[in-house]
Structure formats: structure tokens, C-alpha cells
NAD(P)-dependent dehydrogenase (Short-subunit alcohol dehydrogenase family) (Nonomuraea africana), 300 residues
Amino acid sequence: MTHADLVAVVAGATRGAGRGIAVSLGALGATVYAAGRSTRDRPSAMRRPETIEETAELVEAAGGRGIPVRCDFTEPADVDALRERLESEVGGRLDVLVNDVWGGDPLVEWGKPFWEHDLASALTAWRNGIQSHLVSLHRLVPLMVRRGGGLVVEITDGDGDDYYGSLFYDVVKAGVRRLGRVLGEDLGKHGLTAVALTPGFLRSEAMLEGFGVTEENWRDAVAKDRHFAMAESPHYVGRAVAALAADPDVARWNGRVLSSWQLAGEYGFTDLDGSRPDWGRYRKVAFGPSQGQINPEDYR
């Protein structure tokens, strides 16, 4: 299926879920503005090797049109410049807006009371993970309202109210889930669809590196963490976004908090290995009261 007329902005497309989403939209044939802070000549504070140029090249290889745009979404002027590019290059068309900016993993602390966390780092994580989304929405959604349609996807972590063990991390991700809900109210009346969407145990570049494996031999990490057997590639949540973008009846999801595994069951897509990891169902059993030994393959 091709949707060569689709125009998408993926905020936070440099790596992880954002990259997987950009590439999956490219596989639809879409024009994807791969936006983020890390470029080949100007790395971000994350100090990782992935770049927006590399993401744009992967979009092209998948069959779409990839356009790298350096943009700090906490800075309104940067997002204004992106909006101006959309106006001049594609007539202001914007069909899909994905807010996946985070950049908070190095800033969040675990295993101690929140009042012992570094406050400056915690507030920067909030700025990266919430303020960036609000700026993106404020500046770019008007393009979609003007056309009377489009899809807004807020990428978060988790689809429920379980506490994630760090106050500052939790309030950011809960806030993004709430954005998906309230945007449904605000934007549905203008013909737009807005959702929050979570992956499961995400096999990001940083996660693979942390476990000392690659995408090719990722299952070797199960020896260190048995739950890694349920890990999903960034393409899984990417295919979830692509399925939503291609669905003519996408408005039925408006205001919902969705998951990669839920949408895989709905739309029939798989992860790269042909499986459908169901992190939600697995998590209820593996982390439930019994915490018994279970076979992850029964949940893929």
C-alpha cells in the first residue's frame, strides 16, 4: 500500500521509536520530516551516534521521501522554522504529527527518594519530555486544523496507571498519556484524530548497547534479563503508527491510549521477526502476584 501524498513530521526521529516510526511511514511512501537535535556535524547532549540524516536515508531506503530537519522542540523559534519549511515546501500540508521527543534517560534517577534526585536534571527531563510536545502541538497543529484532518500521535511509556518507580519519569509519561486523551477532545471537533501510543519493552539502540548485543543477536541478552525475550524492535511501534495513518476509519481511536501489541492484534502487522510480542499480557503474568516461570514465546 502506498500513501505517497502523506506528509508527516516525526519529532524525535533520531533514534529509538521515533526512527522506527519514521521508517515505517516511509514504507507507506510518505514524505517524512525527520526532526531532532542530533546531526552529523552537531551532536545533541545525548552524545549518541545516531543522526537525523541517517534516519532520513533509512526513510528513503524504505520507499519514502526523507527530509532531515534539525529542530529543538523545546525552542518555539526552531519549530516556527520547521513550520515555515512545511508552508514553503509542501504547501503547509501535514497529515501525521508524531511527538516522540524524550531525551531524558540520562537525566532520570532510580532507586532513591525523589527529593534526593538532582533537581536540575529532573526539570530538564520534564522540559524535554513535556514542554517539547506542547511547543510542537502549539505551532504545528494549526496546519492540520486548517486542512480539517490529520493524525496526532503522542508517544509515551505505559498504557495504564502503574507507578514506574521514579516520580519525575512517571509524571512525564503520565502527562504524555493525558495529552493523547485531552487532544482527542480538543481536536476531534476539528476533524483530527489524536491518540497516545506506547511500545512495550523497546529494543532501542541504547538498550541493545547496554546489553552488549545487536539487532542481529539480541536474543543473547536474555541470559542477562529473562524479560528481554519479550523485547520488540522500534519498527513494531512504527508499524502501529503506519497502520493508524493508513486507516480510513482511524477516528474510532480518537482520545485513546493505545499500545503496539493492541494495534498489532487489530491490524495484523508483525515485528521484524514475524512475531507479535504482547508485552501487556506478558507483563500482567510475569510481574503479577505469582511471578511464575513462563515461556515468553507463548506471548509473541
